[in-house]
Amino acid sequence: MTAEEWQFVGFSARMAVASTLLILPPGLALAWVLARRNWPGKALVETFVSLPIVLPPVVTGLVLLQLFGRRGFLGRWLHDAFGMDVVFTWKAVVLALGVMSFPLLVRAARTAMEEVSPALEQIARTLGAGEWRVFFTITLPLARRGVLAGALLAFARALGEFGATIMVAGNIPGRTTTLPVAIYERVQLGDDAGAWALAGLSLAIAFAALWFGERLQRRRR
Amino acid sequence: MTPPVLHASFAKRFVGGPEIRADDLHLDAAGGVTVLFGPSGAGKTTILRCLAGLDTPDEGTIRFGDEVWFETSSSGGGRRGTKRVVPPQHRNLGFVPQDYALFPHLDVAANIAYGLRGLAPDERKSRAAEAIKWLGLDGLEARLPAELSGGQQQRVALARAVVRRPRLLLLDEPLSALDTPTRQRLRCGLRSLLLKLNVPSILVTHDRLEAAAFGDQLVVVDAGRVLQSGSASEVFHRPASVEVARVVGTDTVLACAVVGVADGLVTLAAGSARLTALAEALPPGAPRVHVCIRAEDVILTSDADVHASPRNRLRGIVRSLAAEGPLVRIELDCGFPLKALLTPQACAELKLRPGDPITAMIKAPQIHLI
Questions:
Q1: Is B18 on the interface with A (CB under 8 A)?
Q2: Which domain holds residue A77?
Q3: CA–CA dist B45, B291 (Å, integer)
Q4: Which run of H or E residues covers position B259?
Q5: What is the structure's pLDDT at B2?
Q6: Is B89 within 8 Å of chain A by CB?
Q7: Percent of chain B surpassing pLDDT 70
Q8: Which chain B positions have a beta carbon within 8 Å of A117's beta carbon?
Q9: Dist CA A106 CA A100 (whole Å)
Q10: Are B81 and B181 found together in one domain?
Q11: Count of CB contacts below 8 A, A vs B?
Q12: CA distance B142 to B230
């Protein structure tokens, strides 16, 4: 195993963890709002959030590139206000992974929260608990299995993300190259052995993540 | 007179469904038990949930002491009035729902202590311990709700509600989720517990026995309306309307014509028979009234000549006998259908069989007229 290969693995894992952690708060908030509230435009937001599942990832990447590029609507604002450039940096990797895995987390968390009996939340309110306390002591703990499954799914999706990542983050070895991108590059260069080595590492990480998730769920059952 | 501690008048409409009205519902400051009584689907639970703040009425007011928990005002020219709603977490009441709704992921101790946030840890501990001891839950603190029996769950739900020392306790069919022996055992226990707590309580039930056992005050609800409120014995013995009589299960309700009034007594034509009741029971100005007779007030004898005080002696025929719990319900034809309730021993002594002639006696004051 070369140092470069280790770098790809470490970088990809870090990016996937970061994107999963990043989407967790907004993802749970959105899941709750979808599960527990009715508001105009709800169906529209639902559809919009789920788009990355059905769109070709490259298209999602293209949209992100347009939005966050130096001349893009959000990119210019970030550059002017914070001096932050996103595209073709590790931030773009996190962004692409987050956007691609967001719907998976939201869907799983929403289903789990819908299965929590509103009667329990109501009782908590009669016991003096406000909305935040109800969420953190009743809704979230009771939905934890689904939320955890959703987070794992999001993590796994992030590890495997290719199309959107290469569009917004490119392929800069040591800076934006993720495991799938590196595998693709190895194959392009005719380095089949290197591609297979990285593929094996991908498999190991995915396996470890799933196994860990199973363990966690079984222990709480 | 002290003002009522709770005063509510409100209406809630369900889309495509019934309208539930609670008109002039009030509770005195004394810590008695008020029973909301009525058949399933009458709207009792909706009324309770509106009081708890879990449902929002469409219009009306709910006042507790000098607080306004709910109020609509149609002023301002808008098509819909503005609503003022105090959320449940700020009403400081205890709510025990029908299925208890214990938090399945928390053990008994954590369930009970859930509402004690904001108190000092010492105070929290001592209050939870007090409730655990009081409700006989010692040794169950570390159990999860799924590991408890129905009766234990009910006590945990009650402990969880009362540990905060609520100002008002709302119980929705607290015994209906239990099996019959447990229900009978807990009926007495729960009542003495509620009285000991000395918190004004509202209990919802569709069970007549429960209503009679619990209620200092009874509020009869049917089809989304409050039909009558009063003391339990008043409502059971003197239903204000035929609907109330039906809800409280008055055994014989019969439309009769008034034949004559004399010497403080009124004579009524009940089918082919005559009945005598007290004239003071007669509602004013009604040529036709409804006679209400409770089965337990009917005395049966095989001796037609017995010299006894009851004013009404009716010759009749036994139509049928049916066991009803520990008693026997007897349907008679005395010129009108009449129902009686006897012990099995009394039935055996009278050698009652369908088709037998019998004499039924009813004291005049026990005939209620609507």
A1: no
A2: 3-220
A3: 31
A4: strand B252-262
A5: 58
A6: yes
A7: 95
A8: 101
A9: 11
A10: yes
A11: 56
A12: 43
Residue of A nearest to B104 (CA): A142
Domain count, chain B: 2
Please count the structural domains in chain A: 1
CB–CB contact B95 A137 (8 Å): no
Q: Is B171 on the interface with A (CB under 8 A)?
A: no
* Least confident residue range of A89-93, B57-61, B278-282, B305-309: B305-309
pLDDT confidence of residue B199: 86
Which of A128, A138, A141 is closest, CB to CB, to B164?
Answer: A128
Whether A142 sits inside 8 A of B91 (CB atoms) is no
How much of chain B, in percent, has pLDDT values that exceed 90?
32
User: B177-196: per-residue pLDDT in tens?
Assistant: 888 888 887 887 888 888 88
How confident is the model over A6-38, as pLDDT tens digits? 899 999 999 999 999 999 999 999 999 999 999
User: Domain holding A158: CATH number?
Assistant: 1.10.3720.10
Residues B254 and B357 grouped into a single domain: yes
B359 shares a domain with B278: yes
CA distance B212 to A69: 76
pTM of the model: 0.84
For A66, residues 6+ apart whose C-beta sits below 8 A from its C-beta are A72
Contact B219, B35 (CB under 8 A): yes
Confirm or reject contact between B164 and chain A (CB < 8 A).
Answer: yes
| Contact status of A220 with chain B (Cβ, < 8 Å) | no
Residue B124 included in any domain: no
Segments forming the whole domain that contains residue B263: 250-369
Nearest CA in chain B to A143: B105
Query: Which chain B residue lies closest to A125 (C-alpha atoms)?
Result: B89
Whole-angstrom distance, CA of residue B115 vs CA of residue A196 = 57
In a domain, B15, yes or no: yes
Helix ranges (DSSP H) in B10-141: 44-52, 108-113, 121-134
**In the predicted model, what is the mean pLDDT of residues A196-209?**
89
Chain A, residues 100-159, CB within 8 A of chain B, namely 117, 119-120, 122-130, 133, 137-138, 141-142
Say whether both B211 and B311 belong to one domain. no
